[in-house]
Amino acid sequence: MTAAPMTVRICYLYPRLLSVAGDRGNLFALMQRCAWRGIRYSVTEADAGVVPDFAEADLILLHGGQDREMTAAAQDLAAKSGPLREAIESDAVVLAVCAGYQLLGRYYAPPEGPPIHGLGVLDVVTEGGPKRFIGHVAVHCDLSPGRQHQLAGFENHSGRTYLGGNVRPLGRVLAGSGNNGEDGTEGARYREVYATYLHGPVLPKNPWLADHLLSRALAHRYQDVSPLAPLTDRAEVQAHGAALRLARRPAGRWRAAAAAVSRIGPPARMPATRPDRGASTTDKATGWTSR
Amino acid sequence: MRVVASPTAAASGEGSAPLPPSAQARLALALAAGKAAETASRFLRAGGGTSFPGTVARWIDPHILRKVAAASDAGKVVVTGSNGKTTTCRMLAALAQASGLAVTQNRSGSNLLQGVISAAVRGADLRGRMDAQLLLLEVDEATVRQVNPAVRPDTFLVTNIFRDQLDRFGELYSMAKGIEDVIEALPASATVVLNGDDPLVASLAPAARARRLYFGVQADSAGLPEPEHAADTIRCVRCQHPLSYRAVYLSHLGDYWCPECHSARPALDVAVTEVRSSPEAGSTITVQTPQGAFPLDVPLAGLHNVYNAAAALSCAIALALPRPLEPAGARAALARLRPAFGRLEEIQAGDRRVVLAFVKNPTSYNATMREVLQRPGRKHVLAAHSNTVVDGEDFAWLWDVDLEQLVPQLASLTVSGTRAEEVMLRFKYAGAEPGSTLVIHDRAAALRAALTRTPPGESLYIFAGYTPMRELRSIMQRHAWVPPFWEE
């Protein structure tokens, strides 16, 4: 153990713009789990128009938003793209949720309007689909050999994300729909980027993932980091168990089974080219037409 | 300006085409079955029959709502929006009754299709005729798409749009789009009453034929410095640029303008120009209307109830109700109002008091919590949420509630409901001590435990979602601490 207290530098992107489903709970989880262990932390908020010093960030949070807010965030992200990409390539830890996940990919083609270009740091593309995936999700994760976990949360998205060759899925769907409801994958990983569709928010009820991110963030800044001190996670474990039970109710298992049946065909692939935007893909669920 | 039909016209059913005999017979059967279901569910104490009669009646006659509404010359008001529907309807009913109108309404906040039809079943005789001169319906934001074409309201109110059950409505904007379609379908003779202070609501259906009436607040003393965390629509609906506010009153409600495209809050037809409030007694306000300015007492605490009063008054103006717009009439009608059940309802529970607060989204939770925090002393709290069709499955929104403000004032905390673990977790990360928090799923046992932890003479504050609130209230009703909610 190093003598001086360690500090995790958290960069919280778009706290106002991309914050729709209680995702700030992820920040609360990281802050509290540092505080309970005597680890110092700093939080830099960067909304639209502000380019933070990404080189100083150990852990970057990028959350969900609705199509409109996502469009605004995508425009702003273009101004942040260089330093953010550099930070990711030098193994800064990133948690990206829902729209934040889609924004790190190549593009998101909403049901109406032009495609939204992402950072392209994740080799994934997202297509708007005819129906929303809404419900509890359970995911089997295998972050490092011998450390298997279940991730529990709630998904609410119409985008279908397809993984390219340079990313791994975050896990395999046990119940729920995941990336696209077809190939059984959920989320994406690249270097220290962890992207997921799971709200809930995901970190408080999956403390193992919160701690994984924290220890990777510490490793990003410090040499020779000892394992994190264990915490009394009784409330977390109970909430995690309850969320898993909800996901594993028949409805959730049925959705995962339906996806498994559809997998019997050829595997879901990334669309080779961007689809013709003139094609009529109407989505009643997200159909706020821009006027 | 239209005048609400006279009682004789409504009773004789003038102006409605007679139904063919088979359709009339089916309607009569549906109404009879619905009424029987209502009697049965009351007899069995199965919840007062606020939605079951509608389920039965609609099963027999899917067009029952359309038929009953078409047969009546009553004024018809549909109220939708995220927050304030129930209280606004109670205020409007009080104003209407002060004008001598009989009102049929879904008073218990049962605002899905079955609840709306149950109200129609209760209000109509077996021929489908209603005695009431005002049909007043509060309707869930997603259900207006079904209710409005059947009821054809003359006045349609949108109170506000906050994030509320995104798991049911998909995205906020898709829900707004549904409401917009409904407004566009209104005829030119109808009035749409909109919250001018809500940027999303004010911008709905700008080209609609219906007359528009905007209400809002224009009182500097009531403003907050900036939008709170849970604020939703803070970007310009037209050009996406972040909005600037001259004043923020509640969440994203306020006097806003866009520095980019120069769109701004519309001119208010009904404006609250002065607010003097006290945590216990409610607010005294001054309202500017097309008929002039007058003072009004809102007996329910909180700025959200000032908005509700302005909304109710705007509907009364749209309906051209005669007496409430005489200041004395409105004052007297509103002053008698008590909180709707579960809206910071004060209940004497033996030698303790219970304050029952129904919370369903970050805005209503924050507003209610702020009222509670103004009261002195540390608080004994019971927090309960359950996943149900009404309450939704996703409780991520609890993390948008500023519970960090409540935790330092906690004297004891008990959590309950089928999602008790989620509630516990949220309070833990807000700083509550997990070791001294009780997690009791069963509502009756939780209430017992929470009351035991509350010393005699003190208050237990209950923050609960719709279903656990109803369950806790019916437990208290069995103790005869409160009247049944359908007798409210």
Summarize the model shown.
The complex is a heterodimer of chains A (291) and B (488). Chain A has seven helices and twelve strands. With 291 residues, chain A is α/β, with parallel strands linked by helices.
CATH architecture of the largest domain in chain B: 3-Layer(aba) Sandwich
Number of helices of chain A: 7
Distance between the termini of chain B: 33 Å
Structural Rg of chain A: 18 Å
Q: Strand order within the widest sheet of chain B?
A: 2-3-1-4-5-6-9-10-11
The coarse overall form of chain A would be: globular
Biggest sheet of chain A: strands side by side, in what order?
Answer: 2-1-3-4-12-11
Average pLDDT for all residues of chain B: 86
Query: Strand pairing plus helix content of chain B: what structural class?
Result: alpha/beta
Task: Return the domain count of chain A.
Answer: 1
The secondary-structure class of chain A comes to alpha/beta
Unreliable segments of chain B (pLDDT under 50, ≥5 consecutive)?
1-15
Overall number of strands of chain A: 12
Largest sheet of chain B: 9 strands, mixed
Strand content of chain B: 15-25%
Pattern of helices and strands of chain A: EHEEHEHEEEEEEEEHHHH
Helix content of chain B: 25-40%
What form of chain B results from the Cα inertia axes? globular
Please provide a written account of the structure:
The complex is a heterodimer of chains A (291) and B (488). Chain A has 291 residues and is an alpha/beta fold. In chain A, 30% of the residues lie in helices and 27% in strands. Chain A has a single domain (7-222, 231-262), classed as Class I glutamine amidotransferase (GATase) domain (Rossmann fold), CATH 3.40.50. In chain A, the strands form two sheets. Chain A has a six-stranded mixed sheet. In chain A, strands 5, 6, 7, 8, 9 and 10 form a six-stranded mixed sheet that branches. In chain A, strand 11 and strand 12 (193-196) form a beta hairpin. In chain A, helix 1 crosses helix 5 (207-221). Chain A is globular, with a radius of gyration of 18 Å. Chain A starts with 6 loop residues before the first strand and ends in a 29-residue tail after the last helix. The relative contact order of chain A is 0.16. The longest helix of chain B has 23 residues, at 21-43. In chain B, helix 14 (420-429) links the parallel strand 15 (410-416) and strand 16 (437-439). In chain B, 35% of the residues lie in helices and 21% in strands. In chain B, helix 4 packs parallel to helix 7 (144-151). Chain B has helices at residues 7-12, 21-43, 52-60, 64-70, 85-98, 113-123, 144-151, 166-169, 172-184, 199-202, 303-318, 327-335, 362-373, 420-429, 443-453, 466-478; strands at residues 75-80, 103-105, 134-138, 155-158, 191-195, 211-217, 244-250, 253-257, 270-278, 282-289, 292-298, 343-349, 352-358, 379-384, 410-416, 437-439, 459-464. Chain B is globular and about 65 Å long. Chain B has two domains: 72-335, 3-Layer(aba) Sandwich (UDP-N-acetylmuramoyl-L-alanine:D-glutamate ligase), CATH 3.40.1190; 343-487, Protein-Tyrosine Phosphatase, Chain A, CATH 3.90.190. Chain B is an alpha/beta fold. Chain A binds chain B through residues 16-17, 19-25, 28-29, 32, 48, 66-69, 71-72, 132, 134-136, 154, 156, 158, 199-201, 204-205, 232, 234-236, 238-239, 241-243, 246, 284-289, and chain B through 163, 166-167, 170-174, 176-177, 229, 234-235, 240, 242, 387, 393-394, 396-400, 419, 421-422, 424-426, 428-430, 434, 439.
